[in-house]
Amino acid sequence: MAVLNKIRQRSVFLIVIIALALFSFVLADLIRNGGAISQKAENVIATINGKDIDRTDFARKVETASRSFGGGSSSIQAVNYVWNQEIRETVFEEQFEELGIIVGEDQVNQLLEESLANNPTFQNEAGVFDKAKMQEYVANVKATSPQAYQQWLEYEVSISKGAREQVYLNMIKAGVGSTLKEGELVYKMENDNVDIKYVQLPFSSIEDAEVNVTDAEIKAYVDAHADQYKAEASRSIRYVLFNEEASQEDIDEIKGRVASLLDDKAEFENGKTDTVKGFRNVENVEDYVNQNSAVKFDDRFKFKKDLPATVADTIYNLEVGGVYGPYKDGDFIKVSRVVAQKQIPDSVKASHILISWVGLGTAGDTKRTKEEAKALADSIIGVTRADKAKFATLASEFSADSSNKDKGGDLGYFTPGAMVPVFNDYCFDNKTGDQGIVETQFGYHIISIEDQTDEERAIKVATVAQKVEPSEKTINAIFTETTKFQISAKDKDFEEVSKENELTVRPVNNIKELDENIPGLGARRTVVQWAFNEESKIGEIKRFDIPEGYAVVQLTAKSDKGTMTVEDASPTVKPILIKEKKAETLKAKISGTALDAIAQSQGQTVKVASALTMKTPTISGAGTEPKVVGTAFALEIGNVSGPIVGNNGVYVVEVTKKTPASGLETYMSYASQTSKTQAGLVNSKVFDALKEAAEIEDKRARFY
Asked: Do 267 and 273 meet the contact criterion of CB atoms below 8 Å apart?
């Protein structure tokens, strides 16, 4: 009781203490998670012109895009696709709002009708788009499938956005045009021409090795052209591979295991000894292969050329019942047994008429049942057997195979195994001129054998195959080797330890933050994410699991966003500076204005070029030289230019003739064509300009 009284007396104090404790708990949780602001930021994948892009919504769109792309695309491809869509939508939406561009319901409905006009779901019996059908469809999916209805609403929104975008772009196109004067200029650039004599001092006359370009000069050039040499953040790595490959001991063990399948075995069970037949003597070869092999039984006759090249001669020359192996073929250890042989054509030419029925993928619009299809096939073959000339006409009328029905059902020549088994067997087991009906998963085929090439021996081979894989012992040894290397490389030089272990070091430079593929490793997004992690330091080493084994990777360099380094810019800038220095050297060699004298002093010849135009400034024997041709048009006849630095050398030119175009009464056609060309660039150029002007904070790399 005394204790309870004390608690009651200090109740206010206790409440304050408990409140402070709860507050500190909440505060600690906020601090640990970066606070409410940070939590909000975690849900934002990007900010475009102040608009936050929600991460969850973005992820949903990426998932949808991935499904639409199918299995051939990577997640980063889907991410980049959605990213471009988000930027486009955001920058255009701002323009729509600023200009007050809206699209009415009637316009959206009209666009829906145009886009869905060829969809059978929304067509009436006459094959014409029916608005009532569309309304019925929307009402149905709204009542039965919330997901499908949401997709429909998104489709309507996309139609509306597309319409507003088209209105916006059309407004810009309306302001793009060319005057008659501009049309005249285009005409003159195409048709005015000039004849010249010239001397070329080619850049190739000076070896690149003779020109010295310093890092300081490259840096100065980059600084002076910073806009052209922007660099994204990048990382460089190097790595070595430890492949989990089977050792020779593993291969020998697998060979022994496969060899043991050949002969009969005595097995003791239930108090008695039974003989289990081996592969050499077993009667049901197909079941035996399917039970004991990593590759299922192939029930086809093969020619010598169809057998593995390294053992083709040996296996093809075996008699029926003959066995060969164990032998290595690719990633498998195999034993093979010849189970049958026969003479068959090495190719067959055939035609067919495919009769389908409701429920098959080839059915199309047909309503016939399987029984009706069989009756039709029997009827057709009765006609074609009586009159082969009618086969092509009937194929055109009845065949469900649209790829060849208009060719009379002609399938051309094909080799054994090219067709589904029952079709293949009929064609190769029968003779030229035979006709028959076979059933496949596509329908009933009325087959006519048109031709068969020379027969040769074919064999059916049963093969038991076991995949060559590293044993657990080998896998453990490789893991141990990898771990030892990783530890040693942290204490010593990565390159040195690799050399000691006879491992190839593979450098990869300038990896970008959203890159996915690592040369030699394939799609390894985890490696890129690690390299860009703020906590990853230069020199740090990490092991990554890969399907082939392990990759031990070292981070070798970090480069922040900004201007290119001298090293990165050098491959581009150095040739420019070499050309500039060569140009100065060559210009200094030119003195006087007489072409013959200049050519003689430099060991060159005076050349001529005729009918040069400004639109196509190509000089015969020199290449494309717009500066040289432009200078020639600015000179008077008989005048000689000073040294001109072109694309391929330094030139001195003399104009020998000018031929102005005759002119036109109106240049409307040229002005119109120029306007069309400019309007055609609007769609891409406007988006590029809006994207360039946008303020974008991209955080995709944190989540993908």
From this structure: yes
Helix (H) or strand (E) holding 235: strand 234-243
Measured CA to CA, the distance from residue 262 to residue 248 in angstroms comes to: 22
CA distance 577 to 568: 15
Closest CA relative to residue 619, chosen from 190, 203, 200 = 200
Q: How far apart are the C-alpha atoms of 161 and 167, rounded to whole Å? A: 10
CA–CA gap between residue 607 and residue 404 (Å, rounded): 60
pLDDT of residue 95: 93
Q: What are phi and psi of 361, to 5 degrees?
A: -65, -20
* pLDDT of 359 above 80: yes
Prior bond of 626 cis (ω within 30°): no
Residue 554 neighbours by CB distance under 10 Å: 23
Whole-angstrom Cα distance, residue 5 to residue 27? 33
Residue linked to tokens 């896998």: 475
Distance, in Å, from the CA atom of 524 to the CA atom of 514, rounded to the nearest integer, reads 11
Whole-number Å distance between alpha carbons of 91 and 580: 41
Strand locations in 155-202 (E): 193-202
Beta bridge partners of 519: none
| 517: phi then psi, degrees, rounded to nearest 5 | -90, 135
Q: Is 443 exposed, middle or buried (0-12, 13-18, 19+ CB in 10 A)?
A: buried
Tokens of 451: 């031709």
> Measured between alpha carbons, how far is 650 from 638 in angstroms, rounded to an integer?
20
pLDDT band at 29 (very low <50, low <70, confident <90, very high): very low
**In terms of C-beta density within 10 A (0-12 exposed, 13-18 middle, 19 or more buried), how is residue 366 classed?**
middle
Q: What is the 3-state secondary structure (H, E, C) of 651-668?
A: EEEEEEEEECCCCCCCCH
Q: For residue 495, what is the enclosing H or E element?
A: helix 494-500
pTM above 0.85, yes or no: no
The two beta strands, 618-619 and 607-612, are unpaired
> Residues, the chain, total?
704
**Where does 598-648 show beta strands of DSSP type E?**
607-612, 618-619, 623-624, 644-645
Residue found under tokens 């014409």: 128
pLDDT tens per residue, range 176-234:
889 999 999 999 999 999 999 999 999 999 999 999 999 999 999 999 999 999 988 99
In this structure, how many other beta carbons lie within 10 angstroms of the beta carbon of residue 205? Answer: 16
Give yes or no for a contact between 532 and 542, defined as CB atoms under 8 angstroms apart.
no
Residue 133 in tokens = 């059908």
Angstrom distance (rounded) from CA 278 to CA 447: 41
DSSP of 260-322: TTTS-EEEEETTEEEEEP-TTT-S-HHHHHHHH-SS-----EE-GGGS-TTTHHHHHTPPTT-
| Helical pair 75-99 and 55-69, crossing angle rounded to 10 deg | 120
Do residues 486 and 551 lie in contact, with contact meaning Cβ atoms separated by under 8 Å? no
